[in-house]
UniProtKB/TrEMBL annotation:
Source superkingdom: Bacteria
Membrane-spanning parts: 6-26, 67-92, 127-152, 164-184, 191-209, 229-249, 275-298, 325-350, 371-391, 403-422, 429-449, 455-473
Coiled-coil segments: none
InterPro entries per record: Na/Glc_symporter_sf, Na/Pro_symporter, Na/solute_symporter, Na/solute_symporter_CS, Sodium:Solute_Symporter
PROSITE patterns: NA_SOLUT_SYMP_1, NA_SOLUT_SYMP_3
Protein name listed in UniProt: Sodium/proline symporter
NCBIfam families associated with the record: Na_Pro_sym, sss
Transmembrane recorded as keyword: yes
Membrane topology: Multi-pass membrane protein
GO biological process: proline transport
Entry GO MF terms: L-proline transmembrane transporter activity; proline:sodium symporter activity; sodium ion binding
One of the Pfam families matching this protein, by short name: SSF
Length: 494
């Protein structure tokens, strides 16, 4: 038997379980509403863990530990920014979005919500927002496929090209079959697996290095600056890392979880569960990268793969420190992180193409069954394009994620926030905010001005555009204001 046999068996059992959940969800998917939002039936636990798992992706177990391993604790500013942003997202957006989407023609997607919220009869908001979703999510999907490929490449010695397809196929299958319910149910299992791996791994790494004191001594011997939270920090650098938290307000795959909750009352307990899960997972990921420095300092002969690509630090430590069967479970957690995010991204892209293009412009009176099957075909289309983008083996997970995260955060974040908090916002304000946010991110990324993360100027300029263009044009209609007030009152009374 190959040394990888236990890991392979564990992977196959895990993948089979996820696909089985997909087929069970198939039986509960009666119409397009079920396929896209699960019939708005998610309880607080599933809402919380699904939002967390769909958020974190392979970045949590590969990108973040790799950044900490390379640069030390100073890279944890990203984690601090994410925690603050996620908490504000739960507090300001989650409950309100659940209520407002229902009051705006029971909107199933963000483009659908924007169209009805601002009474956009020209449907230009629907078109622009759907295009933004497709462009940035295809890049985001590619990041998940790269992470999956790295996992299969490192674990089973496959070529990058073969690993690319192996990592993507299982996710595509259960998303294709089961839709939103499959994605949400599997997210709950995957979130549990991720937190188990991220609590256990740092403990075992510390044990292998002899405890905290020897680990700290080893890290200090490598570079004392690894302990410095402000190492090489500039004001712009710290702001750029903290600004990752701004991205939460505009991520369609996370916002879809809020829209799918069974009621606003579920949100308080969902927020507590979600934030606890998130803090423990981020702390564990930082611990893996940080204590991994100590382990490979003591065992330099084993550090080859990590030196070549620091994003493999969790993978290599799992293979080195654990029984192959346990390692298989831990490595399945990376696959869980990849699959959970990739699946809901594929689904959001599918919903944008199906609801916002196919149904809106081509087949207004399409049957529910037809829409579900078109949605499934769109999952396949986006997956193939994302695989093509991911085919370059030089791609890095964190780089792809940061670009897509900034794109959504700047294009949609201010629009979502203002639409839920300000009844004076207009369609022209929403359109200007969306376009200015997206264009700023693309231009700033290309020019790299000031070394500032592109989400910062994108978010600020989009917010200004919303206010200016809402003030310049005609005021919101009486019906828009009334819907806003009724939804806000329902939210406050819940």
């Amino acid at each position: 038997m190959s040394v990888n046999t236990p890991t392979l068996i564990t992977f196959l059992i895990y993948i089979a379980a996820m696909v089985l959940i997909g087929f069970l969800a198939w039986r509960s998917t009666k119409n397009f509403d079920d396929y896209i939002l699960g019939g708005r039936s998610l309880g607080s636990v599933v809402t919380a863990l699904s939002a967390g798992a769909s958020d974190m992706s392979g970045w949590l177990l590969m990108g973040l530990p790799g950044a900490i391993f390379l640069a030390g604790i100073s890279e944890s500013w990203i984690a601090i920014g994410l925690i603050a942003g996620a908490w504000l997202n739960w507090l300001l957006v989650a409950g309100r979005l659940r209520v407002h989407t229902e009051h705006n023609n029971n909107a199933l997607t963000l483009p659908d919500y924007f169209t009805h919220r601002f009474e956009d009869h020209s449907r230009v908001l629907r078109i622009f927002s759907a295009i933004i979703i497709l462009v940035f999510f295809t890049i985001y999907c590619a990041s998940g496929i790269v992470a999956g490929a790295r996992l299969f490449e490192s674990t089973f010695g496959l070529s990058y090209g073969t690993a690319l397809w192996a990592g993507a196929l299982a996710t595509i299958l259960y998303t294709f079959v089961g839709g939103f319910l499959a994605v949400s149910w599997t997210d709950t299992v995957q979130a549990t697996l991720m937190i188990f791996a991220l609590i256990l791994a740092p403990v075992m790494i510390l044990n292998a290095t002899g405890g905290l004191e020897p680990a700290f001594a080893a890290i200090e011997s490598v570079n004392p600056a690894h302990f410095d939270l402000f190492k090489g920090a500039t004001f712009v650098g710290v702001i750029s890392l903290l600004a990752w938290g701004l991205g939460y307000f505009g991520q369609p795959h996370i916002l879809a979880r809020f829209m799918a909750a069974d009621s606003v009352k579920s949100m308080r307990s969902a927020r507590r569960i979600g934030m606890t899960w998130m803090i423990l997972c981020l702390a564990g990921a930082v611990g893996v990268g940080f204590f991994g420095i100590a382990y490979f300092a003591a065992h330099p002969e084993q550090a080859g793969a990590v030196t070549e690509n620091p994003e493999r630090v969790f993978i290599e430590l799992a293979k080195l420190l654990f029984n192959p069967w346990v390692a298989g479970v831990l490595l399945s957690a990376i696959l869980a992180a990849v699959m959970s995010t990739l699946s809901c991204q594929l689904l959001v892209c599918s919903s944008a193409l199906t609801e916002d293009f196919y149904k809106a412009f081509l087949r207004k009176h399409a049957s529910q069954k037809e829409l579900v099957w078109v949605g499934r075909l769109m999952v396949l289309l986006i997956a193939v394009i994302a695989i093509a983008i991911a085919s370059n083996p030089e791609n890095r997970v964190l780089g792809l994620v940061s670009y897509a995260w900034a794109g959504f955060g700047a294009a949609f974040g201010p629009v979502v926030l203002f639409s839920l908090l300000w009844k004076g916002m207009t369609r022209n304000g929403a359109l200007a905010g969306m376009i200015v946010g997206a264009v700023t991110v693309v231009v700033w990324k290309q020019l790299g001005w000031l070394g500032l993360y592109e989400i910062v100027p994108g978010f600020i300029l989009a917010s200004l555009a919303i206010v200016v263009f809402s003030r310049l044009g005609s005021a919101p209609s009486a019906s828009m204001k009334q819907r806003f007030e009724v939804a806000e009152q329902e939210y406050r009374n819940s």
